Structure formats: C-alpha cells, structure tokens
Amino acid sequence: MDHFNTHQLSWETVAPRKHPRSLSDLALSQVTNALTIALTTSPLTPIPQELSEVCVAVNTMLPLELRTAVVQEVVETQVIHDHITLVRTLLLHLQVDVQHLSLVTDSTGPWLHLGQDYSTHLLEQLDPTTKFNLNSLHLDGVTMAPGVLAEIIHRSPHLKSIHVAGDETASEVLSYIKKNPRGLHSLHLDNCNVTDLDVVHALVKSYKDANSWLDIGGGDDNLDTSCPPLCHLIIQSPLVTLCGAVVLLHSLRNLRNLQYSYWNSSLCNLFVYLKQQSSSAAPFSLTSLSLWQVTDRALETLSLCPYLQHLMMECTDPSLTSMSTLTHLSHLTSLTLRLVPENLIVAAVQAIGKNLLMLEVEFEECARTSVSWETVEEIQTHCSRLQRLELHHVIITADPSNFLFLPSRPRSIFTELAQMNLSGVVIQPVLLGRLLCDNVALETLVLDVNHDALTDACLATLLKNNKLSFLNYIYLSGGLLSVSTINSLLSLPGLVRLSLHLPRFPFIPAPTFRCLQYRLLKGNYQCILENATKSD
Q1: Helix or strand or coil: residue 154?
Q2: Taking the CA atoms of the chain, what radius of gyration do you get in angstroms?
Q3: Is 84 exposed, middle or buried (0-12, 13-18, 19+ CB in 10 A)?
Q4: Burial, 211: exposed, middle or buried (Cβ in 10 Å; 0-12, 13-18, 19+)?
Q5: Can you tell which superkingdom this protein's organism belongs to (predicted)?
Q6: Using CA atoms, how far apart are residues 62 and 69, in angstroms rounded to an integer?
Q7: Of all helices (H) and strands (E), which one includes residue 518?
Q8: 3-class DSSP state of 349
C-alpha cells in the first residue's frame, strides 16, 4: 500500500497495533515487578531479606541471558543517588548473577562511596557465592572500601571488560591486574591520576625499559597469539605521556583502539619518527584513531595502520590540501570530520566515499558553517553505500534559481541508509525533501532543522519517494506540519515512536495532540506519540 496515500483512509484503520504479549513475556514482566518492589522497599536494614530471597529465586529459575535482561530492565528505572540504592543495586547484580554489571550514579550529585559498614553487609550476603558470571563491569561515580572491587574481580573469571572512574578505583584495578594477570579485551579508566608506570607494569607482563623506538614496529609473526588479548585501552589521566604509549603500542600488539590522554595529538610525531628511522616498520593492528590538527605528513603515516576502520579528524593544518592518502585505507568504513573545511570534506568523500558506511560532519554549535548543496550532492554521489549519515550545525545553501532545473523526482539516493541525523541544520524545504530517494532501509530519522523546513509538502515528498517500512523512530524539532501529516506518519508500518517538540509546531493544537496520544494508547497501537519538550 502507498503509505503516502494512507492518510486518505482513517489512520486508525491502517496504523499497526501491538501484538498480544506471549505468556513468557508476561511471566518475565512479573519477575521484573517483583525485583523492582524488593529493591525499592525501605526497611531499616540496608539489604532487606526479601531482596536476597527474590534474587536467589530469579538466579535459580532463569537462564543467564534472561536474568541479565531482567536486571537491566529493573536498573534502567532506578536513579542511584544514595548509599541504600547503591548497595542494593550492586547486590541485585551479583546475587542474581548476571553477565553485565553497570552502576552509574546520578551525574548531578556527588560521588557515592560504599563504606566499610555497607561493604561488610554486602560481602556477608555474597559469601556463599564463589564465582560470578560477569563479562563486563562498569562503575561511574562510585567508590568502594579497599578490597571490595578486587574481590568482585577475583570471583569473575570470565570478566573481559572493565570500565571504571576515579583515582582510587583505577589504581585498585591496575594493582589487581598487576598481581593477577587477566585476559581482558577492554580496559577503560576515566578521571584518574595513574601514571605510565602504573599502566605498563599492570598490562605488560615482561616489561623492560625501551631503549629504542625502533623496536616499536616489532616483527614477530606470532604476535596475535603471543601477546595479551587487550584490544581496547582508554586511559584518561593527566599524568600519562607519549613514552607510555610507545611501550604499550610495542607490547600490546593486538590493540585495536588506544586513547591515551595527551597522546593522540602527538600520534603523527610518533609515526613520522618510525617512518624516518625504518621504512620497514611493522604495521599496527589499530582499527580506530582520532587525529587533531591534521597535516599531510600525519595522513601519510597512516600506512602504519592498514586495518584502520574508524577515523576521526578534528581541525586541519593549513598545509593540508589533499585527502588522496585515504584511498590506501581499504578497510576504512567510518569517517568523522569535525571543523574540517568544505573543500577537504569533498576531497575525503571523493577519496574513500565508496567504502564508507558511516559519515559524520560536524561544526561548532555557536557558529554554524555554510556548506553548499553541491557538497551534499558529492556525498550522495560518492557515498552510495552509507548506512548512517550525521550532519551537525550546518547551513546548507543553494542558489534558488537552480531549483528551476531540478528534476521532479531525484535519482536513487542513499538507498541503504538506516540512520539519518540532521542536528542543528538549516536547510530549504525543497532540498530536505531530496536528501533520500528509493530508500528501503531507514530505521531512525532525526530532523532537528529550521522551523520553516518541515512542511507538509516536504514530508509528503519523503514519504512518496521512499519505502519506509522499517522506519521505527522519528524525531522532529519543530515545523509547519498539520495534523494530517502526523496521521500519515502514524500509519507507517514499522513506526514505534514519534517524538515532537510540540511548542514548535503552531498548527498542531495541544488538545489535539493529547487526543491522538489517548487514542493510540486506548487502541493498543504500536506507535507511541510523545512530546519531547517534557524530556528535554
């Protein structure tokens, strides 16, 4: 059915409804409610007996994947802002025995410290459990009494990913790893003051002082099996230096992503030095890099990263005039360009666009930058395989006289695009309607654009020229849309959420909007209509 014409029928006739919930879903919902009630009751004791009993029951009844999903659903509804909630949520994860533990406190409040009294209660409850099934551990805004975190890590033999914040917490993690080497795949330490030696001594088992940078390139054909499996390392500390990065790159040859504070800006210097000293330096396994103040020489040294898949460039040196070096990066599929001049944006998509699956172009919010429609057309032409496109704080300009020569229907454009995000973009309605054509894959559409760009005619063009059967989320920041167009969107077969910033839609009265919300809810329709103003 032509979804552009469905609004001619009653949207209530066409819009999809929710499927009846299965018995298993209903049962899991009951389990979730029971856990939530046990977690939020408030007796005098920090850990109520009812909570422990429910945790043990869920652990016994459900397989690992299901109980992990249930706990994640429970925790998503909680705000960790006090010690009672913290210790109970931690116990919930560990006593139910889930795969992923994530405790992130309310960012607006102070950090929470799990003191000795709370730690004693917790460890007493967990004493019978000798092994956890944790695969990942994430703590942010949380500190614990000495030894508690180490005990959790010790009882988690399958732990592959650790992400913590804070100086004491990061130091405890590194100290434990130093004494008890682990097969971690990912380590992320935020907001800490660890040093190069702290990191290197913990992660590099056979560390010796590096006497020559020439050794960095390595040459061991068996590095993938002989070196530690760590693939992702992020250290945010003002005390780490380029010297530490050198040793880590040399020793951890399986690294795919290395973010070392105050190091990335010197990346080109390190690679340039290697190129100068040895033209046969062995390549690195890095698949993700971020570059600042990019120069010609910096791009040339990327030959040392032949497996690069994700590249972020922020700002460029005036000497940089070409992006042709990118053509040698055959694995590059994701490119982010921040504060990069328009001519270099065009050069980049011409060089590597045919391989790109993700492209993000961003300028400063306080000073939107003009980009011509011809540049957008270059992206459309060279990036035909894009699955995700993001444009931030851009003014897309075009000569109105050229609109007379535009064909009534554009050629096929971005047919495989699944996510399109225009954030803080100024664009003319006729151009907005021509960003996509013959698309059959779009799942997410975010249009945070100027008020007069979103018109009924513009949305009608997008609906008419594309088959949006998989589109499940739409956000519209404001515009001149009528209720009839909203009804057309509600008729899309895959739409699950339609979010509008209601005060910026003058032709959609608030009572009519609330009536639509009520009818969707009462009729058990699949789509949720929400006023984004309330969640800003």
Answers
A1: helix
A2: 27
A3: middle
A4: exposed
A5: Eukaryota
A6: 10
A7: helix 510-522
A8: helix
Q: Which two tokens stand for residue 158?
A: 């399958």
User: Rounded to whole angstroms, how far apart are CA atoms 15 and 18?
Assistant: 10
Q: Which residues of the chain have pLDDT under 70?
A: 1-9, 42, 44, 206-227, 262-268, 278-280, 403-406, 408, 534-536
**DSSP string computed for 412-442:** PB-TT--EEEEEEEB--HHHHTTS-BS----
Helices (H), 290-339: 296-300
E strand residue ranges, 148-269: 161-165, 186-190, 232-235, 257-260
Tally Cβ neighbours within 10 Å of residue 521: 11
Using the structure block, give the residue that is written with the tokens 């035909």.
384
Q: Which two tokens stand for residue 382?
A: 């060279």
What values do phi and psi take at 310, rounded to 5?
-125, 125
Can you give the length of the chain in residues? 536
Q: Is residue 145 packed enough to be buried (19+ CB in 10 Å), middle (13-18) or exposed (0-12)?
A: middle
Q: Is residue 156 classed as helix, strand or coil in its secondary structure?
A: coil
Residue 361: both structure tokens together:
């172009």
Give pLDDT tens digits for 303-351: 888 999 999 999 999 989 999 999 999 999 999 999 999 999 999 999 9
SS3 string, 72-118, reads HHHHHCCCCCCHHHHHHHHHHHHHHCCCEEEEECCCCCCCEEECHHH
Q: Which residues of 43-65 are buried (b: 16+ CB within 10 A; e: fewer)?
A: eeebbbeebbebbeebeeebeee
User: Helix (H, G, I), strand (E, B), or coil: what is residue 155?
Assistant: coil
| HSE (side-chain half, CA atoms, 13 Å) at 136 | 12
Residue type, 76: E
Taking CA 380 as the corner, what is the angle to CA 356 and CA 486, rounded to the nearest 5 degrees? Answer: 105
Please work out, in degrees rounded to the nearest 5, the angle formed at the alpha carbon of residue 171 by the alpha carbons of 165 and 172. Answer: 95
Say how far apart CA 431 and CA 379 lie, in whole Å.
14
CA-based nearest residue to 213, from 155, 156, 274, 296: 274
The contacts of residue 163 (CB under 8 Å, 6+ apart) are 136, 137, 138, 139, 140, 186, 187, 188, 190
Token pair, residue 503, equals 């005060």
pTM for the full model? 0.87
Residue pair 182/156 in contact (Cβ under 8 Å)? The answer is no
Q: Give the span between the Cα atoms of 437 and 413, in whole angstroms.
A: 5
466: which DSSP letter?
Answer: S
The residues, any chain, with a CB within 8 Å of residue 375's CB and separated by 6 or more, are: 342, 345, 346
Residues linked to residue 185 through DSSP beta bridges, in sequence order: none
Residues 464-507: pLDDT tens digits?
999 999 999 999 999 999 999 999 999 999 999 999 999 999 99
Q: Which residue has the tokens 């229907």?
A: 409
